[in-house]
Amino acid sequence: MHQFLRARALSLAVVAAVAGAVVSVPVHADASSILKIHINSHGKVRLSDTTLHTGTVRFALTGGAPGWGVQVVTLKHGLTLKRAEGLVAGAFAGNVKKIRKMYADINFVGGPSASGPTSGTLELPKAGTYYVFGTPPDGVKSPNVVKVHVTGPAVRPAAPTSKAQVVAVTGARWGGRSTLPHKGTLVFKNRSKDYAHFVDFEAVQPGTTRDQVLSFLQSSGPNSPPPSFADMTRQGFSGSIVSPGEWTAQRFHLAPGAYAVLCFMPDKKMGMPHALMGMVKIVTVK
Ligand SMILES: [Cu+2]
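Above: query sequence and copper (II) ion SMILES. Below: predicted holo structure tokens.
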């Protein structure tokens, strides 16, 4: 479903976070140090290794299905997985108390959009237990969580360099460039100090302005028709959630044209998605 159709309904679950589609990209096949991630059409995740070292790990993802993604998190302050799920659900329903606790107690370390095969790099900044799960399209429950044990010293691994870079900055705003290549490695860096964010690209007609997108988001409901500026002929892209200071990287391919870049994470003070508060940027994909 087109994300614009349900900009308001995104309050449903974390998953709302992860619709959109990635066109298949060939996967690296050389090194043995590559973590193999398989996600089936029901979102069940399997990993080739569940004991990893801090730093970065390259992955190759097979399987996938439209709308699915893979999310990696670590939990802080003794939070259990079960309570974390409740926090995220409550947070995306606009519960401000749960939003605050979610930002404080869950570290989102990215993961690939999994609409089809792809590859990329994950960062593993600290030792501990990492949880990996499929993030489904609307209303579907994620079928399983894989626990990964990470050992080694804490590190701050640098993100791969890429011209396809999207940057979030403090105050729920997008920084970075306005022009991106249409394929390569999409690197999303969260340089903000305050919030976790995720990247959602929605195809728009040439000449669409940020104000147009913003007023549509602020005035539309879950059953609103798609806006006239939406380009339904091109697929978008929706990535996983990334906490402040973290990044995620994966191969991607988008049809050239204009896109609105949005984030639908809920705000700590208002409970509303960041996009509605101005986290909207128009970019040209060439
Ligand atoms: Cu955000």
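Residues 1-31 have pLDDT under 50 and may be disordered.
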